[in-house]
Automatic annotation (TrEMBL):
The keyword Chaperone applies. Its main location: cytoplasm. This is Peptidyl-prolyl cis-trans isomerase. Also involved in hydrogenase metallocenter assembly, probably by participating in the nickel insertion step. This function in hydrogenase biosynthesis requires chaperone activity and the presence of the metal-binding domain, but not PPIase activity. GO terms for molecular function: isomerase activity. PANTHER family: FKBP-TYPE PEPTIDYL-PROLYL CIS-TRANS ISOMERASE SLYD.
Length: 168
């Protein structure tokens, strides 16, 4: 079976920067990535490169910043009041996730000042060229529940446990 829309794909990947420094390795974590093809679960450039491949396929993909996490936007670096942080102890380099206008966003603390905190809401990999080594492990048809949710579900998930948006 080949990778196509409405199919669940399981794969291992090694993500490296332009210089070959490994940023993430699913095999080292013993946790393959599973995604529902055609539903925006992964970057469009990766989906495009994987389309038509079958289990056992191995490939390398390079994504320029605009194809990956976007270009850095200096307008996303700004100062906020210290009251915006629930924990009293925060330091440069700390990252956390917060709700954003377009979904969750990662916030990085750049500097802690007396009256505020300088934050960066660019994705940590924005502006970076990314290189992926991919190995397709499995391709299967998505279940109705997975199609309703728009992403793969854990094995053994019963249909009654999932709200079917198509039926509501």
């Amino acid at each position: 079976m080949t990778i196509d829309s409405q199919r669940v794909v399981s794969l291992h990947y090694v993500l490296s920067d332009r210089d070959g420094n490994v940023l993430d390795d699913s095999r080292a974590r013993a946790q393959p990535l599973e995604y529902l093809h055609g539903h925006g679960n992964i970057m469009a450039g990766l989906e495009h490169a994987l389309a038509g491949r079958a289990a056992g396929a191995e490939l390398s993909v390079t994504l320029m910043p605009a194809e990956a996490y976007g270009l850095r936007d200096e307008a996303l670096v700004r100062e906020v009041g210290r009251h915006a942080f629930p924990a009293p102890d925060h330091a440069p380099g700390m990252r956390f996730q917060t709700p954003g206008d377009d979904g969750p966003e990662i916030v990085t603390i750049l500097e802690v000042r007396d009256d505020g905190v300088l934050i960066d809401t660019n994705h940590p990999l924005a502006g970076h060229t990314l290189r992926y080594r991919l190995e397709v492990l499995e391709v299967r048809e998505a279940t109705r529940a997975e199609l309703a949710k728009g992403h793969p579900l854990p094995p053994g998930t019963e249909p009654g446990e999932v709200e079917d948006k198509k039926m509501v």
